[in-house]
């Protein structure tokens, strides 16, 4: 059993790591958000990464004595893929990438349909058919189109409460929706643009597709504050190894998978999540890491300390490329789930050979 002294040393180690590794990144992003967002414009922070990004933004503002309207918003790619399963405008995003398996597996893993829901909508012949993406994309779209009415019935149980949840946060009252995420291609932003039929502005640390994009009848604008116009695999290390940032910037729960009206109070909601990875099971340790980062954001806001992109890139490149820069005691909190792409749980340090 750890002594109090050993526990304090452990906490200090985690906090110090958070200050040096995550602090500058969160401070840089928060500073640019504060500088670039029109006054009184609410910012909605998305997905699991948004949990800590929103806290960092508020810490930065509190240090600088500025006011900012922000809110954490539950969303995930897979949940929105399911919510828009009967909307053909979403297929550009939900059927992108590779897949090799049965139609049943595609519906279950990528679209979060339960076994019962799949069998409720599709025949056994369809369920058992083997598919390959992108080769069979048109065939899949034809099947989904033919079953649109049945899919609408399945989706209605989550669509109505989710829209009510968004309304309760003030999302639906906005003429133009400002969304914040770590990056990179803006899939969740694009899906929310379709779902809500609203113009959106996406604020990202790194944006692979900056500028204005026409999505259905609306415009989605994407901005990247550290870097724009870079894609995975092109050699830009903060993006190619963004898994390091994603594994630490996680909420205490697993992937957002569903929502229902509360049985006893229709004005409140019950949320459902997927399995937890190590950083969520050991969230009390992650909180120690992020405590150092948040304190640093407050400090830089208070003293108006700024980083330029070159300085932040230099720091990140060192941490993301050199062995032993990241303390071994934090190794277990660098797990991330990659279920949407079928890779399961991945440890960033092991994946890039830095363990």
UniProtKB/TrEMBL annotation:
It comes from the Bacteria. Keywords: Hydrolase. This is HAD family hydrolase. One of its GO terms (molecular function) is hydrolase activity. The keyword Hydrolase applies. It comes from Pseudoalteromonas distincta.
């Amino acid at each position: 059993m750890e002594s109090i002294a050993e526990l304090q040393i452990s906490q200090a180690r985690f906090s110090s790591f958070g200050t040096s590794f995550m602090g500058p990144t969160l401070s840089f992003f928060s500073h640019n958000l504060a500088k670039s967002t029109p006054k009184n414009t609410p910012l909605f922070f998305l997905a699991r990464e948004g949990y800590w990004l929103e806290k960092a933004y508020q810490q930065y503002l509190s240090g600088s004595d500025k006011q900012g309207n922000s809110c954490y918003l539950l969303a995930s790619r897979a949940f929105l893929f399911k919510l828009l399963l009967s909307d053909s405008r979403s297929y550009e995003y939900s059927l992108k990438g590779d897949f090799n398996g049965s139609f049943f597996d595609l519906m279950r893993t990528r679209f979060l349909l339960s076994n019962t829901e799949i069998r409720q909508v599709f025949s056994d012949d369809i369920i058992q058919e083997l598919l390959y993406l992108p080769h069979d994309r048109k065939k899949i779209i034809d099947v989904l189109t033919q079953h649109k009415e049945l899919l609408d019935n399945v989706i209605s149980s989550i669509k109505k409460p989710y829209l009510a949840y968004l309304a309760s946060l003030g999302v639906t009252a906005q003429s133009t929706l400002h969304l914040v995420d770590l990056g990179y291609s803006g899939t969740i932003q694009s899906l929310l643009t379709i779902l809500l039929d609203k113009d959106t502005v996406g604020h990202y640390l790194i944006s692979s597709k900056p500028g204005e994009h026409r999505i259905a009848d609306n415009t989605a604008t994407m901005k990247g504050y550290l870097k724009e116009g870079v894609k995975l695999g092109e050699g830009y290390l903060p993006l190619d190894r963004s898994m390091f940032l994603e594994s630490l910037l996680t909420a205490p729960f697993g992937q957002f998978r569903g929502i229902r009206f509360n049985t006893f109070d229709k004005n409140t909601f019950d949320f459902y999540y997927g399995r937890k990875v190590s950083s969520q099971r050991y969230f009390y340790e992650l909180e120690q890491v992020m405590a150092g980062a948040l304190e640093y954001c407050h400090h830089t806001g208070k003293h108006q300390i700024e980083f330029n992109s070159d300085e932040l890139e230099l720091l990140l490149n060192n941490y993301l490329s050199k062995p032993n820069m990241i303390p071994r005691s934090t190794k277990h909190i660098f797990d991330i789930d990659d279920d949407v792409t079928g890779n399961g749980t991945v440890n960033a340090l092991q994946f890039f050979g830095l363990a």
